[in-house]
Amino acid sequence: MTAQDGRVIFTRGGQAESVHAVHLAVVDAAGQRLAHCGDADLVTFPRSSSKPVQALPLALGLPELPGDELAIACASHAGTPEHLAVVERLLARSGSTAEDLRCGTHPPFDPTAAAELIRRNEAPTPLHHNCSGKHAGMLLACVQNGWPREGYTEHAHPLQVRIRELHAELGGVALDDVRRGTDGCSVPALALPLHAAARLFARLAAPAGPLAPALESVFQAMTAHPFLIAGPGRLDTTLMPLVPSLAAKMGAEAFYGMALRNSPRGPLGIAFKVQDGGERARPHVALAVLEALGVPVTAQMRALAPATLHNWAGRDVGTVEVELPLVWG
Amino acid sequence: MTAQDGRVIFTRGGQAESVHAVHLAVVDAAGQRLAHCGDADLVTFPRSSSKPVQALPLALGLPELPGDELAIACASHAGTPEHLAVVERLLARSGSTAEDLRCGTHPPFDPTAAAELIRRNEAPTPLHHNCSGKHAGMLLACVQNGWPREGYTEHAHPLQVRIRELHAELGGVALDDVRRGTDGCSVPALALPLHAAARLFARLAAPAGPLAPALESVFQAMTAHPFLIAGPGRLDTTLMPLVPSLAAKMGAEAFYGMALRNSPRGPLGIAFKVQDGGERARPHVALAVLEALGVPVTAQMRALAPATLHNWAGRDVGTVEVELPLVWG
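Structure tokens for the assembled complex are given below, as produced in the milestone run.
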């Protein structure tokens, strides 16, 4: 089902300058479609928004895992010393080291942490990779579930097979409808219809069935440790503390998933994709959909998506406008 | 006139992941529309692609200005020591210093230059701003044309009035059709229809009339000093030396202008806008339109817009595909 696209419009001097198209789906606690704009059947990659589901085998295999370690397993972290400390603790739990990580390496996402490495003339390690917590969690999930750590990122590894099954089960689609690519960190990147991705987050918002305890653990870990999920100034970290009972997880290419427990319509799952992958549109859409769903948007929340644009000299030069023509039902 | 949009599609695992829409216009030496895709009448901001026209009052006022200084006046430079040296020489020519620049400050665009400032614990100055050469040129244009340097960035300043008139004249539109916003560096950002922006570049490709010597000087300065126009690894710098008689200038929000003298159809002006402002699409569209216009695309050129995407571990994960459904005439 396709409706008019959502749009995020960047204007300059009262003139539209650039436009991002948005596809969005909202699913309720029963897994039913509640609202959407654009193409709710769009098959796309949640990317890191999959991390809460990718962490379920870990939560299932080790229910007593400390919440901060479960959080870092769900994180796209900013590579600060605080993040790395939790990653190392989680790694040690499976007897692994940084050398066992298959994610690759990149500088910390946090500019301050990145600058510090430059000042010290230190190269980043795989620990700094934003997915290192996920990978550390996957290594532990292998150990807890009796799977080999060797080849843990391969499509055919039992952990990755289980993760794909969980996407199909929680997303409410056939296994064949969960397609596979390769993610930036080398694990499978799964693609599924947008409404199914929203359903993953609805299951986090309203856990039910045999997976309920693990889903609940993941939801609690994310909401109790917003700093670990992302980092300084990053949307998941700044938004979650401002909205009661919200677990939010961004994905690369401007994907976003939100498990919202406290809404006038009860627990909801929200997923959206900015068509062109433009990350700057994400906070604007996040606020707009929360507002459309009856969540009060405070001034602190508005500050996460300023409607006024400034230039290098601090002058007002334009605005950001959001159109979210939601179709209900 | 609107035709089907151009598209740049980023795929992962054979599945489309993100899509950028593209509007593009090609104009010939006589100023006539040759081809387009998407909306050739789209009113948008060329942003820094305006710099060759913004430099015309300087070229008109001081025909003997050295080519490297005229180039830095047209540049969105990467802030390396080599760029700064030319900016300082140009500034001195009008008796100005960095304190007279109104562009604001940001770290160098070049990562190596930026890292060097961090290592030295030095803050960037207005000289590092990518538009500092343009501003230095504007200050000199004021002096040469007998205008005050005071307020040189204001809409009502005679220099900015003249620049807007030049956009209308060379773009082939009424003055009222050249709308005004404020740019990142605080000078006016002018908006005009895409076909008119293409016409600006056609005038650079085929100078005629009283402005011909100044247009020729700008074209020669850009093509003779590709490093100064941008910097290490940046598209204008890497593309210009690979295509005979091409002057190319990128603009923020994924605008691009090309003055192509050597094509099977003679001198041409090309302008395109990636609708969402996604800069990564720009090189792909640039190569695709050159190829569509009969310019041979070499392996070195293809390297500027790799069709294969790699992840942090160096693995192939996806592709970039370009659809440019040009309508001719």
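Chain B has one domain: 6-328. Residues 132-145 of chain B form the longest helix (14 residues). Further analysis is deferred to the final report.
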